[in-house]
Amino acid sequence: MDLVELDRIAVREAVRVVDLARERDWERDTPCAGWTVRRLVAHMTAQHHGFAAAARGAGGEAEHWREREDASDPALAHRVAAADVLAAFAEPGVPERQFTLFELSGSFRGRTAIGFHLVDYVVHAWDVAVSLGTGLDLPDEVLGAALAVARRVPTDPAARAEGSAFAAALDVPEGAAPLAKTLRLLGRAPERWPTVV
Question: Do the Cβ atoms of 117 and 104 come closer than 8 Å?
Answer without folding.
Answer: no
